[in-house]
């Protein structure tokens, strides 16, 4: 396992909106950004990382030849911001970094708790990381707002019956790929057809509820469900991410309500609304803890959230924890409490 | 150090409002309450603990002979809910428990971070606890709401400039001793005279800011200040704790605003309003994180808090962490993340 250093060498794999924001944060905090990786042949391949991120001083090109670039740059850790699920492509990216001897930290939502499903790639990646003595961890906004703030909150009750979350995020903050994934602009008929299809992977919050259960110390009983409902535009609203207008009566996005039951009889649930916002709307994150009789006892709300900010910042602050962790896939419930990385404080 | 067990033997030292609530929680959660200790000669001395707490099944007397009672009951841990500051009396209580070979967990506010001041009793107690192989920790509402939720929140920003808290608690929830300490019912002249006196000890939040600094990973630069302002009744309001009416124009309580500066240039502050509530008021806890330019970036609010509930519940949930910790005084920033004690889940 590479030695923990004050200022580790960081590569960023995936230079979309999130990847470039992470490059900017790392640069401002005087971390050593040593490589930027893009899809081979993408229009960013070969362009200067500093130009792409809008910061001076990073005068080396983004590269499409990931394996070669990582071996040359020898990062301590690779930040991966490519996609959501642990599929074959994502596995290929992670294993390229692992084989280059680097830790991996990622925003891929499935990686927050990849053992929530029976994904054989999670076991394979865990084995590979252990063999190479490196750690692989998924983090992001969820780490603070859907898992660790909530497990601390639940630590202040003496009779835990359930935990219920409600949250909203603006599809327009995350680029066109996610807007399409949230079915923005489709009709209710299209949505129903899509929903009835069998291919839909678990929602983001599916993974976070498993991580929350682990952080609280609960054992899922094997029954998890997700109810998905469309959110319709009541008037024409412009989508920045898509660059088009969402017509009244079509989808601004949808709400997933995930529920996870545990052997302790404690039920965890979260309603996540991802949609194109109207003018006055802002992100929020709200949770209630109920007691054994279902009565609300504790409450926490984060208003005026900038989910894109907290997503990238939480990842950056987790870098020293991931470097110091044991080899293998290590989920955030097994890391120390999330905190500001004072070693890289912006002076 | 005693072995960590699923259901440790717990003694409760101090059977006021908080102590008896903790007895009830422990009883409902099937912990083993093995002794209740009161001041020798108090009117509770010799009365059945079950009668005092209003629970059946604890059919043994509260005892005034602490040392003898603790040696007989052999608790793994002693819960101490007697007073706020680490003075000679409190030191005597802690050392009686430590000499009986028991860990100590306490609501004494100074013990949240006793090294915030140059209190020689803290060093002496630390040495004594190490000699006896036991841990001494201060916890309570502050652990979750003034320290750990806030350090997690700060872990989701990339540019930490400051942390500001605002909170309110109802003096009437905590009995007559605290109501007198909050100067309830006194005149502004009395208050000014009292404030000008030199004997006033640091506020509760003084200690919590040092604990927060430690949890975030910051180093206080030696400049801490507290500004105290009276909160006056605008009409006659009944105080349950004192059993009298607070006359219009006299004090409902006061607000302490503590500020702590750090070597990293990050300023921590908290305004704590402790007063007798009017009918519509409830406890809240609200924090903002600002960036290096002073702009607010993150927000957290807990509404409709029951501070008495969270005070006692946080202490109970911390018991396994304290039993498992290294010997000596261990502050909450050094413990694992606060979480629900599932080993004692109320089924």
TrEMBL record, chains A, B:
Chain ranges passing through the membrane: none
Keyword Transcription in record: no
GO biological process: lysine biosynthetic process via diaminopimelate
Domain Dihydrodipicolinate reductase N-terminal: 9-79
Keywords assigned: NADP, Oxidoreductase
Record Pfam families: DAP_DH_C, DapB_N
Keyword Oxidoreductase: yes
UniProt GO molecular function: 4-hydroxy-tetrahydrodipicolinate reductase
Tree of life domain: Bacteria
2,4-diaminopentanoate dehydrogenase C-terminal domain boundaries: 149-339
Matching InterPro entries: DAP_DH_C, DapB_N, NAD(P)-bd_dom_sf
Protein name: Uncharacterized protein
Naturally occurring in which organism (per UniProt): Streptomyces uncialis
């Amino acid at each position: 396992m590479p030695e923990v250093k004050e200022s580790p060498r960081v590569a960023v794999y995936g230079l979309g909106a999130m990847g470039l924001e992470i490059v900017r944060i790392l640069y401002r905090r005087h971390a050593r950004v040593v490589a930027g990786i893009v899809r081979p042949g993408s229009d960013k391949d070969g362009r200067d990382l500093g130009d792409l991120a809008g910061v001076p001083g990073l005068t080396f090109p983004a590269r499409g030849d990931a394996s070669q670039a990582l071996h040359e740059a020898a990062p301590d850790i690779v930040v991966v911001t490519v996609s959501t699920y642990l599929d074959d492509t994502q596995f290929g990216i992670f294993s390229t970094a692992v084989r280059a001897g680097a830790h991996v930290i990622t925003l891929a939502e499935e990686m927050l708790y990849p053992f929530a499903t029976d994904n054989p790639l999670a076991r394979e990646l865990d084995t590979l990381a252990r063999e190479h003595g490196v750690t692989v961890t998924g983090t992001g906004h969820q780490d603070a707002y859907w898992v660790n703030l909530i497990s601390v909150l639940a630590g202040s009750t003496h009779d835990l019956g359930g935990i219920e979350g409600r949250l909203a995020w603006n599809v327009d903050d995350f680029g066109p790929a996610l807007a399409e994934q949230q079915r923005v602009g489709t009709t209710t008929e299209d949505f129903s057809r899509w929903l009835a299809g069998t291919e839909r992977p678990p929602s983001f919050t599916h993974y976070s509820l498993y991580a929350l259960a682990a952080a609280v110390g609960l054992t899922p009983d094997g029954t998890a469900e997700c109810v998905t409902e469309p959110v319709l535009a009541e008037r024409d609203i412009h989508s920045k991410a898509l660059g088009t207008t969402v017509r009244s009566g079509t989808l601004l996005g949808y709400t997933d309500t995930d529920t996870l039951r545990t052997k302790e009889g404690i039920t965890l649930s979260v309603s996540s609304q991802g949609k194109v916002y109207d003018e006055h709307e802002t992100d929020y994150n709200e949770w209630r803890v109920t007691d054994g009789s279902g009565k609300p006892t504790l409450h926490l709300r984060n208003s005026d959230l900038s989910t894109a900010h907290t997503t990238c910042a939480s990842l950056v602050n987790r870098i020293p924890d991931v470097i110091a962790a044991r080899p293998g896939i290590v989920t955030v419930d097994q890391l120390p409490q999330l905190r500001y990385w004072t070693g890289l404080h912006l002076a």
